[in-house]
# Entry
Amino acid sequence: KEVILIPEDYKFQSIYPNPFNPVTTIPFAIPVDSQIKIDVYDLKGNHIDQLVNQNYNAGFHQIVWSPNNISSGLYFIQFQTPTYISKQKVIFIK
# Structure
């Protein structure tokens, strides 16, 4: 029998590696099927990139970000569902 683990709560897990070059992994967990948005912002709050804007099934997921055409520096990754929002800082080093 297959066992499928479903988290109890939304969780925006630690992004790794951080600092990173050239890619970083963004893991997250969702307790119910949800519309997920993951966006990248710079220090001034400017929207840099949208990594995800789609439905995901309940469970544990991860995406990989490999930035193009951005400079080294500190960025914020925002994870958002209809009922939960969280941000993490990442450092991109060229």
In short: The chain is about 0% helix and 55% strand. Residues 33 and 92 are 31 Å apart (CA to CA). The longest strand covers residues 47-56.
